[in-house]
Amino acid sequence: MKILQLGPLLLCMLAGYYCIGQNENLAHYETKVKIDVSQQSFEVELAINYQATESKPIDSLEFLIHENANFIHCKAEGLLKLEEVARSNQGKAIILYFEDKWTGPKKLHFHYTSILKKEDAPWGIDKITGDWIELSLNSTWLPILSSFNLQFTADVALELVAEKNFEMISSGTSKKVGQNKFEITNTVSQIDLVLVGSPAFHQTNIGDITIHDHRKADKRAAFIAAIGQKGYQWLNQSFGKVKAIPPVKLVIAPRSESGYARKNFILLNDGISVKDTLGLAIFITHEFAHFWSSGANPLTVHRWLDESVAEYIAWKYAQKEFGTTAFHDFLTRIEKEASGLPAVYQGSDTGTPQHAVMYRKGVAKLYGLEKTIGEAAMFTFLRTWFSVEKKETETFLALLEKLHGKEVAGSFRANLGK
User: Fold this and answer.
1) Which of 175, 280, 344, 392 is least surrounded by CB atoms within 10 angstroms?
2) Phi, psi of 354 (to 5 degrees)
């Protein structure tokens, strides 16, 4: 355990703070990053503005970051000390203690260095090499609020020290302002900031989909983009009135580890199959659906709301695009499997549900709700649900009761517990 004693300081924040529904925080990260590729290291200067709600005065904040982060300083008005505590998956908590409880805005500034070699990267995903740079939540390269309820936009001034001439992308825009120097702007709020770089991106554009591949594979890129465009259009037609998904980037990484999504930014591994059209369509549509189906704390039982709903939507798209046979085969399979799996939700937080519970059993429960209220009513309900920022099961059930009555909500609650 390491403690830094810090005096009270007031810093100038470069961007504003906003608060959206359900006390979900939305901040702006103003970031200066320097990555030394040969050393596999980086240096970050970061300004954040955090706001405590009037109903919940606080005297401390806890962020998560990679265990290799070495703090040069952390400054804020009224800050007494910074405490570092080891956490799992090569992470650590950064706990900021303040002189007094406070509400309203608090301006924070972090300055630290870190190293990300192969042995430092949890799950083998994030890395810094001469041919590929990937930084995301998987390595917690930026401080992330430990409650995972702080989403943020970002402006990044990025400089690479590298022998090769890189291109860098993220979910937002990336402007090259010099050799290995970039200005990156993310306007879609996320729980982290993903940066990906390669000296050899091959780009394919179809409609609202852009493929960035680490190698030239024109047929694969065109195939994936075409499938993605169809799912993208259907989703926007179905849920775009809540908020329209912006153009989407799909990145194909030179690795075998799992892919992931950040709303309009998806990473796939190099082994993605172009032979399984149905499977690829479901995968991509599921990830696109997270543009709407997000907001649950990923470390709690409520995560089923994000994953089960996204998977349900993906299969509804498959039903439309590929016919009912594959859809009903999937439902038959998961309904048989459901009895051997734990409950989706029983009214208490028992941690993150199993993968099979979220991706199969939860989907079966949602389809059961659809059979009760009808497909059109189900989609209307989901559109209303997507306007709620912080996703919790009791909120979902309360909305269901408001729109469809106590009997429907009570029956669905009981079904989730079976």
Assistant:
1) 175
2) -60, 155
Going from the C-alpha of 17 to that of each of 54, 113, 253, the distances in angstroms are: 15, 26, 33
Evaluated on CA atoms 290, 292, 298, 301, the torsion sign reads: negative
Handedness of CA 208, 252, 150, 16 (dihedral sign): negative
Burial 129-164, CB ≥16 within 10 A → b, else e: beebbbbbbbbbbbbbbbebbbbbbbbbebbbebee
- In angstroms, the CA 40 to CA 130 distance is 9
The phi and psi torsions of 319 (rounded to 5 degrees) equal -60, -40
DSSP assignment of 103-134 equals -EEEEEEEEEEEE--GGGSGGG--EE-SS-EE
Burial (0-12, 13-18, 19+ Cβ within 10 Å), 372: middle
Q: In what order do the strands lie in the sheet with 202-206?
A: 202-206, 209-213, 248-253, 265-269, 260-261
* Distance between CA atoms of residues 409 and 187, nearest Å: 36
At 250, list the tokens. Answer: 């799909």
Residue by residue, pLDDT tens for the chain (418 residues) are 333 333 322 222 222 222 233 335 678 999 999 999 999 999 999 999 888 888 889 999 999 999 999 999 999 999 999 999 999 889 999 999 999 999 988 899 999 999 999 899 888 899 999 999 999 999 999 999 998 888 899 999 999 999 999 999 998 899 999 999 999 999 988 889 999 999 989 999 999 999 999 999 988 998 999 999 999 999 999 999 999 998 999 999 999 888 888 888 999 888 887 788 898 899 899 999 999 998 888 888 999 999 999 999 999 999 999 999 998 999 899 888 888 999 999 988 778 899 999 999 999 999 999 999 999 999 999 999 999 877 899 999 999 999 999 999 999 999 999 9
The amino acid at residue 82 is: L
β partners of residue 95: 62, 83
Round the CA-based radius of gyration of the chain to a whole number and report it: 22
Which two tokens mark 387? Answer: 């306007």
